[in-house]
Design brief:
The complex is a heterodimer. By secondary structure, chain A is an alpha/beta fold. Helix content of chain A is 54%, strand content 11%. Chain B is elongated. The relative contact order of chain B is 0.04. The chains are: A alpha/beta, B mainly alpha. The structure holds zinc ion.
C-alpha cells in the first residue's frame, strides 16, 4: 500500500474513533467505564454538572468502581457539596483502601463542619418499638443534675472475708468476718429503708466469696460505688483506730502496702496495657481516663468517710491511704476499703462487739456518702 | 479555603496520576488514555511530516530541512515541558500528598519529615498542621501534638478536627473540665459532630450521670450510627437506669457492627442473669470466651455464677450438683479459692 493512502486511511480511522470517543452512544451501548471516562473529561473541563450526570450513571452501572466514586467525590467537591463528596470518597476508600487521594480528601473536608446527609427512616423492629415505649415512660420522669460531680445511686456493700476465711481474729475470739457481715447487713437495711440509694451485698451469710466474684457483683449491678468493710489487725497490740483505703498504682506508704498485701491474699494483677506504635486507641485513652477518674474519686470518698469516722466514732484517726488492692483495682467504679478499728487491740475489740457502736459506724458511713 | 491543598478537581487528577501507583497502571486510568492518545498524535504528525519532507527534499537545501525538523520537534515537545518541570520541582501540595501517603502506610518518621517541610513552606496550611499533630500523638509526643492542634485552632476556630484533638489530649492529661469544654465547643460549631457527642456522653457515663450520657450518646448515635462503641456506651447508660430493653437493643446494635465485641456480650449476659435466665447468661459468657479465651470479665462472671449456683444447690442438699458447679468454676478459673476449698470439703 502506498504510504500516503495508508496515512489517509489511518487519519479517517482516527476520526471515527475520536467521534466514537466523544459520542460513544453513536457507536455502542455505553459501559460504566465509558460514563466514568466521560465524567472525567467533563471534570477536567470544569463542567461539574455534566460530570455528575455521567459519574452517577457510572456508579449506578458499576457500584464496585472505586475509581468512579473517587471522580464523583471530586465532582461533588467542585460543586461545593461537601457531605456528598465525603460520602463518595468514603465509598471509594471502602472499595479500595489504598486510595490515598480519596482518604486524604475525606480528612481535608472533615476538618470542618459539613452538613448531614439525609437518610431514609427505616421501619422499627418489635424490640425498637418496646425500647421506645420504655424510653418515653422512663426518661421523662428522670432528671439529671447539672455539672460533672460524681453521682452515687447504687452502692455495692462488701463484707470482707467469710466462710473458711475468718479474716483477722481478736484476742477474745471475735472474728473479722462476723463483724463485717453484721455491719454490712445493717448498712444495707439502712440504705434500703432510706430509699435514696440502692444497696447490694456481695454476701448475705457466712460463706467465702473470692475477690474476683466480689468485683463481678459490682459490675453485675452497674454500681456507682464499691464499699468494702474490714477490721484491721496488727502484731502490735497497741495499734488502734480507723483508716480508709483507696486504690492507686502505688502505695502511699509501707504500712499501706502491708495492709494491701494482707487483704489481697491472692494477688493477680492485670498486665499493664501496652500501646502499639503508630496507632492511637481512643478506647484505651478513655479506659485510662475513666480509671484515673475513678481512683481520684475514690480518694475523695475515702477522705469523706474518714472525716466522718473522726467526727463520729471514738476511734483514733489513722487517716486515708492509697494502696493497690486487688478487690478495688478490678472494680469499674470508685472503690474504697474501710478498716474500722483494730480487732487486735483490746479496746477496739471491745467496742466492735457492742451493738450501739456498730450502729454509730453505720451512721457515720451514711454521713460519709453525703 | 487556605488549607485546601487541592484547588480544583483537575489538580486532584494530577495528584492521582503522579502519585498513585495503583491508578497509573490500570488500563482505564486517564493517564494511560492521555499518554496513548498523545503518542498516537505524535506518531501520525511525524509520519505526515516525513512524507512532506520526502516530497520536497529536492526543492530545499538539506540544512533547511534539518532545521525545520528540529523546530517542529521542539514545538511538538513544548506542551510536555511544564509536566517535566512539575515532576521535579516539588510544591507544597506534592509534599503533603507524599506525607499523607507515608502516614497511611505507617511510615511515621517519613510522614513527620514531609509535614514538617510542608508547614515550613506553608505555615497556614491547617491540614498539614493537623496531620503533624496526629503523627506526634501517635509517637506519644503529646506536647508537640498539642502545639500543632493549637496552631490550627488559632488559624481557624472552626477547624473542629483540631479542637476535638485538643480535647482528646486533655483527656490523656486527665483534665476533664478542659476536655469537656473543648468537646462542647465542637458541638456548638458542628451540631453533627458524632465524635464530640461521643466523648461528652462517655464523660457523663464516667461521672455516672446516665440521663445526660443518654442525651449525648443518642446524638452521637444519630449523627453516626456506624460506631459500635457509641452503641455500647449508650447501652451502658440505659443499663444503669435499668432500661433493659434499650440497653439490650444498643448492645445488639454494637454486636451487629462488631460481632467480636465481648464487652457488649458480657453485659447482655448480666441482663439475662438478672432476669433469672441463667443458661442464656452462661451461653453469652462462653461465647465471649470463644472469641477471647483470656477475657477477664467473662471468666470472673462465669466463676461467680457457677459458685452462686453451687451455693444454691448445696442449700437444697444437692451436693452432687454443687460439686458439678464448683468443677465448672475451676474449668474457667483454676485458681478460684472458693471452688477449690468447697470441692475438697464436699468431694467424697
Ligand atoms: Zn479484712
Amino acid at each position: 500500500m502506498e504510504r500516503r493512502r495508508f496515512l489517509s486511511l489511518l487519519g479517517k480511522g482516527f476520526l471515527v474513533s475520536s467521534v466514537a470517543g466523544v459520542f460513544p452512544t453513536a457507536a455502542f451501548g455505553k459501559t460504566a467505564l465509558d460514563y466514568a471516562l466521560e465524567g472525567q473529561n467533563y471534570l477536567q473541563n470544569g463542567d461539574y454538572n455534566k460530570a455528575l450526570e455521567a459519574l452517577l450513571k457510572a456508579v449506578e452501572i458499576d457500584p464496585q468502581s472505586d475509581w468512579a466514586y473517587g471522580l464523583l467525590g471530586r465532582t461533588y467537591r467542585g460543586l461545593n457539596k461537601n457531605a456528598e463528596a465525603v460520602d463518595a470518597f468514603r465509598k471509594a476508600v471502602r472499595l479500595n483502601p489504598e486510595d490515598v487521594y480519596s482518604r486524604m480528601m475525606i480528612e481535608i473536608i472533615t476538618q470542618k463542619p459539613i452538613p448531614r446527609l439525609k437518610s431514609e427512616p427505616e421501619e422499627l423492629t418489635p424490640l425498637e418499638i418496646t425500647a421506645r415505649q420504655e424510653e418515653s415512660a422512663m426518661l421523662t420522669s428522670l432528671r439529671s443534675d447539672e455539672g460533672l460531680g460524681y453521682k452515687v445511686n447504687r452502692v455495692v456493700i462488701d463484707p470482707g472475708h467469710g466462710g473458711f476465711d475468718s479474716g483477722a481474729l481478736g484476742y477474745s475470739g471475735l472474728k473479722e468476718k462476723d463483724v463485717t457481715l453484721d455491719l454490712a447487713i445493717m448498712l444495707y437495711q439502712r440504705m434500703a429503708s432510706q430509699g435514696k440509694i440502692k444497696p447490694f451485698l456481695t454476701r448475705t451469710a457466712d460463706y467465702y466469696v473470692p475477690l474476683s466474684d466480689r468485683t463481678a457483683i459490682a459490675n453485675q449491678f452497674q454500681a456507682d460505688l464499691f464499699l468494702s468493710i474490714h477490721i484491721n489487725a496488727s502484731k502490735n497490740r497497741n495499734a488502734r483506730g480507723s483508716e480508709t483505703y483507696y486504690c492507686s498504682e502505688k502505695a502511699s506508704n509501707q504500712e499501706a502496702a502491708r495492709v494491701a498485701s494482707l487483704e489481697n491474699a491472692v494477688l493477680k494483677y492485670d498486665k499493664p496495657l501496652t500501646q502499639r506504635e503508630g496507632y492511637i486507641d481512643i478506647e484505651e485513652i478513655l479506659f485510662r481516663f475513666e480509671q484515673k477518674m475513678n481512683w481520684k474519686e475514690s480518694g475523695v470518698f475515702a477522705g469523706s468517710f474518714q472525716q466522718r469516722f473522726r467526727e463520729k466514732l471514738p476511734l483514733d484517726n489513722r487517716g486515708v491511704n492509697a494502696a493497690n488492692f486487688f478487690v478495688l483495682r478490678r472494680a469499674k467504679m470508685p472503690s474504697i476499703l474501710l478498716e474500722i478499728g483494730f480487732i487486735s487491740n483490746a479496746e477496739d475489740e471491745e467496742r466492735l462487739k457492742g451493738q450501739s457502736f456498730r450502729e454509730r459506724v453505720v451512721e457515720s458511713i451514711m454521713w460519709g456518702l453525703l | 479555603m487556605s488549607d485546601d491543598i487541592v484547588k480544583s478537581p483537575y489538580a486532584a487528577l494530577r495528584f492521582t496520576l503522579r502519585h498513585c501507583g495503583v491508578r497509573v497502571s490500570t488500563p482505564h486510568s486517564s493517564g494511560f488514555t492521555r499518554l496513548a492518545s498523545g503518542a498516537f498524535y505524535f506518531v501520525v504528525s511525524m509520519m505526515t511530516f516525513y512524507e512532506f519532507i520526502m516530497s520536497k527534499r529536492r526543492r530545499f537545501p538539506r540544512s533547511f530541512l534539518y532545521g525545520l525538523t528540529l523546530c517542529i520537534l521542539f514545538v511538538l515537545l513544548l506542551p510536555l515541558m511544564p509536566a517535566c518541570h512539575g515532576a521535579f520541582a516539588a510544591d507544597v501540595n506534592d509534599i503533603i500528598f507524599r506525607g499523607a501517603d507515608y502516614h497511611y502506610k505507617g511510615k511515621l518518621n517519613e510522614a513527620i519529615a514531609a509535614f514538617q517541610q510542608a508547614v515550613r513552606l506553608a505555615p497556614d496550611n491547617e491540614f498539614a498542621h493537623n496531620q503533624l499533630g496526629l503523627l506526634y500523638a501517635k509517637k506519644e509526643r503529646d506536647g508537640d501534638a498539642f502545639r500543632e492542634f493549637s496552631t490550627v485552632v488559632q488559624l481557624d476556630r472552626r477547624n473542629t478536627f483540631a479542637l476535638l484533638w485538643t480535647g482528646i489530649l486533655y483527656l490523656k492529661q486527665n483534665d476533664m473540665d478542659k476536655a469537656f469544654e473543648a468537646f462542647q465547643e465542637v458541638t456548638s460549631l458542628d451540631p453533627n459532630n458524632a465524635d464530640a457527642y461521643y466523648f461528652l456522653g462517655a464523660i457523663y457515663n464516667f461521672r455516672h450521670h446516665p440521663v445526660k450520657a443518654i442525651e449525648y450518646l443518642k446524638k452521637a448515635r444519630d449523627a453516626d450510627s456506624g460506631e459500635a462503641d457509641t452503641h455500647y456506651r449508650l447501652g451502658r447508660a440505659f443499663h444503669r437506669l435499668d432500661m433493659i430493653n434499650n440497653a439490650y437493643l444498643e448492645y445488639t446494635r454494637a454486636l451487629k457492627l462488631k460481632p467480636a465485641y465481648t464487652k457488649a456480650i458480657n453485659e447482655i449476659g448480666w441482663i439475662y442473669y438478672n432476669q433469672g435466665n441463667y443458661q442464656a447468661a452462661i451461653d453469652q459468657w462462653n461465647n465471649a470466651l470463644s472469641i477471647n479465651p483470656k477475657d477477664t470479665d467473662a471468666i470472673s462472671n462465669l466463676a461467680k455464677v457457677y459458685n452462686d449456683m453451687a451455693y444454691v444447690a448445696l442449700s437444697q442438699n444437692k451436693t452432687d450438683d454443687a460439686i458439678a458447679f464448683w468443677k465448672a468454676t475451676l474449668s474457667v478459673m483454676p485458681g478460684n479459692k472458693a471452688a477449690r476449698y468447697y470441692l475438697d470439703s464436699y468431694r467424697r
